[in-house]
Amino acid sequence: MSSSQPKDLRLPTPGCYADPIKAGIDADAVFDGMTEHLFFSLGKLATTASLRDLYMALSYAVRDRLMTRYLASQEAIRAKPQKTVAYLSAEFLIGPQLNNNLLNLGITKEAEEAVGRFGIESLSHILEVEEEPGLGNGGLGRLAACYMESLASLQVPAIGYGIRYEFGIFNQLIRDGWQVEVTDKWLKGGWPWELPQPDESCFVGFGGRTESYVDEKGKYRSRWIPSEHAIGVPHDIPILGYRVNNCDRLRLWRADATESFDFYAFNIGDYYGAVEEKVASETISKVLYPNDGTDEGRRLRLKQQHFFVSCSLQDMLRSLEKRGIEVEDFSEHWTVQLNDTHPAIAVAELMRLLIDHYHFEWEKAWHITTSSVAYTNHTLLPEALEKWDLDLFSSLLPRHLDLIYEINKRFLQQVRLRYPGNDLILRKLSIIDEDGCKAVRMAHLATIGAHHVNGVAALHSDLIKRQLMPEFAELWPEKFTNITNGVTPRRWVGLANPELSSLLDKEVGKDWITNMELLKKLEQKENDSGFLELFSKTKLSGKRKLAGYIHRQTGVLVDPSSLFDVQVKRIHQYKRQHLNALQVIAQYLRIKNGVDQDIAPRTVIFGGKAAPGYFMAKLMIRFINGIADVVNADPDMDGRLRVVFLPDYNVKLGEQVYSATDLSEQISTAGKEASGTGNMKFAMNGALTIGTLDGANIEIRDRVGSENFFLFGKTESEIVELRENQYDPKTYISNCKELSEALRLVEVGHFSNGDSELFLPLINSLTGSDPFFVMADFADYLRAQDEVNKVWKNPQKWNRMALLNTARSGFFSSDRSIKEYCKSIWKVKPLDVEISCDIN
User: Fold this and answer.
1) Which domain holds residue 771?
2) Which of 355, 643, 659 minimizes the C-alpha distance to 491?
3) Per-residue pLDDT tens for 63-81?
4) What is the domain count for the chain?
5) Active-site option among 83, 299, 306, 378
6) Which of 484, 515, 548 is the last residue of a domain?
7) Quick check: is 575 catalytic?
8) 86 and 71, same structural domain?
9) Tens digit of each residue's pLDDT (9 = 90 or more) over 77-120
């Protein structure tokens, strides 16, 4: 057995249900597994195998070694039923799987040796071939992936439920400075990590009508008669825990047609009509987040949400029946977590299944539902709180609308008893929005139907209760709680930063990767110049790798010894990439004007995608690239300032970026960012944060120490006060000469080849309403950047601050988050999975 394999990890022995050869974890076994799959699975000989062939062969060999744990975990649940977490999410940004599974199995070195026997110099050449599943857009999907990995590592039984998007989030190209969206065909070469389970497919209905009838007991009931159907075909992805026997799964649903081909239509020459049903049904799982700027786009989004939620709930109910468990015990065996409002239709769908299919009375069905469902809110932005037009909803889900009306009627009766005669509060709390076009408020449905509602950072959870849902919080104070987000240290330090991981192993022991609080031991080294030098060398190693990547991808040469100042996240006005861009212009002007010859050399790196229909965000990308073109072509900037926009930012690229960052830009408008998780990844990897008191920044600053955090900007309460007092951005522009000069340079077309019209919408927004208070925060942001510059020129101080960020980041492990969910919301316990010979 490999020395890297934990001694207590039990493996199959001869005579077990699993082939002991395929379960072997030494280099010989991995090599044999690759050779076997090359020949039998891929039809290739080693002498003619491409890098992709070798990637597929290694992936299949590794998947073989997951199967023992995967099947044993399922058998353990069948043998000893206990509550399982059902994590419902429209996104699971799981990232590349091969390296993650090698790490969690503890066989990275063995795989390195095995691929070497095929003449491959480094395992990294194989890893680069892997396509990344584009199953998420950003933080929401990445959080879901971190949580699934932590659930498995903590041996908590769980299934993640979502959609198997054929085309994920688009691939991003930059042409003439603009974002161009290209289809993400991540499945084009086959994906070795999924296990299709067509025998466990589900039927899902849409449209049609409802009708009343009298059942055999003489009771009036309703039934839904859909006008169209789709089949949900599950595809399971094993989610392996770190060095444990437990292996949870991610179950993603692919949409198929009930009838793929209409022979009659074909025979009369209607060739499109012959496949129309197939095309319509399969469109449901074609693409992540269709554009909701059109009626058809909104209809498809709602169909997607109902599709995966219905399939998932049917799957849970069916699992109870298979195990001989009464459906009325649903809440004792399943805890259903709604990851934002996308799966909120689960409240109505579970009620429909219980009432219409299992014939429960309303009170019983409602008790089961509200005992099972919990809701995580991820946003305070009104536009992100989903509402569905009543006409659209009734045409697509008529039975669900009937049930929502009844839920709302019963709920509002409770409100009337609590607040007699208060019609205003009734309107505020109603699931049906009566203002303007009538709509179904999904956040209200989720809140009413859930036993817990949680925010994802202390400030965010407080704002939910004070600003977003104050009436709900007053009605049910016990329902609202906070669980601050976390990220998995296995991927975001163990894989992303092998040099730092190795140093941590030597200094605090290898258990830090599952017990991040052990990193506090590093505080003893804060004044050890020798150790600080070793710590800084791990950062320089990451910066050299990223510098090479930047040159290959963009042609820009950057100095690894310069300060790497990084802002990578979804492009959005509230995240304020334009604030960062304006301070870059200010730094550029200082150098050009000879104002400050003591500016530390800096490489400013941006990355992220803008939603295809979000014009202002796409203009911000063009703005950043316009600045980069000017700065990088100016000889005066050589050795002093470089600006880079990294195209197609994703998980794989993130693994390079987080380990190479010196300064983490977390500069959202206070009160707008729910939590953030990139801020946590940066801190774990020893980056210092420049940020506002927003989201989890507050908790990061509290834990790493205010002296190790570059704070600037208005607080949430100050932003509220500015808004109430008719905020005028021009006042701040006139009071800050550097800001007015930077804006003037943009206005005259200096960063747009003389085109003074190109960035006019951006300028008008900033100088007009400035909805995200960029102008109000600019001067203080520049002051904080000057402080960054000052500290950077003192390497001993910078390295000490960076070390303390890593040492004190343990709280932000997703393991801690999951433990809190298990204790305070889900009431679930770890499962002791034994690998035995009794499974067959």
Assistant:
1) 528-810
2) 659
3) 999 998 899 888 888 888 8
4) 3
5) 378
6) 484
7) yes
8) no
9) 888 889 999 999 999 999 999 999 999 999 999 999 999 999 99
Judge whether 497 lies within some domain: no
Q: What's the CA gap between 210 and 402, in Å, rounded?
A: 9
The encoded tokens of residue 185 equal 């065909």
Structure tokens at 124: 């990294």
The one catalytic residue among 243, 569, 572, 578? 569
Tokens of 793: 């020129």
569 assigned to active site: yes
Structure tokens at 167: 């085309």
Active-site choice (681, 703, 714, 800): 681
d(CA 821, CA 160): 15
Q: Which of 149-153, 285-289, 654-658, 778-782 is least confident?
A: 285-289
Own/partner contacts of 190-195, CB < 8 Å, gap of 24 or more, are 190/56, 191/131, 191/133, 192/56, 192/59, 192/60, 192/63, 193/59, 193/63, 193/97, 193/237, 193/238, 194/164, 194/235, 194/236, 194/237, 194/252, 195/235, 195/236, 195/237, 195/238
Q: How far is Cα 818 from Cα 320, in angstroms, rounded to an integer?
A: 24
Position 281 confidence tier, pLDDT thresholds 50, 70, 90: confident
Judge whether 566 and 664 are in contact, CB under 8 Å: yes
**Is pLDDT at 597 greater than 60 in this prediction?**
yes
Catalytic residue among 575, 703, 800, 808: 575
Residues 363 and 400 in one domain: yes
DSSP 8-state class, residue 381: -
For residues 239 and 277, state if they share a domain: yes
Q: What is the pTM of this model?
A: 0.94
For range 129-136, the mean pLDDT: 91
Q: Are residues 149 and 44 in the same domain?
A: no
Do residue 459 and residue 603 come from a single domain? no
Write down the catalytic residue from 379, 677, 689, 692: 677
The number of angstroms, rounded, from the C-alpha of 115 to the middle of its chain's C-alpha atoms is: 32
Is the pLDDT score of 198 beyond 80? yes
State whether 415 and 546 are in the same domain.
Answer: no
DSSP label at residue 600: P
Q: Active site includes 185?
A: no
Percent of the chain with pLDDT over 70: 94
Quote the CA–CA distance of 428 and 472 in Å, as a whole number. 9
Catalytic site residue from 83, 570, 622, 800: 570
pLDDT mean over 259-270: 52
Q: Are strands 228-240 and 202-206 parallel, antiparallel or unpaired?
A: antiparallel
Q: Between the CA of residue 367 and those of 371, 408, 450, 635, what are the distances in Å?
A: 6, 15, 10, 70
CATH classification at residue 643: 3.40.50.2000
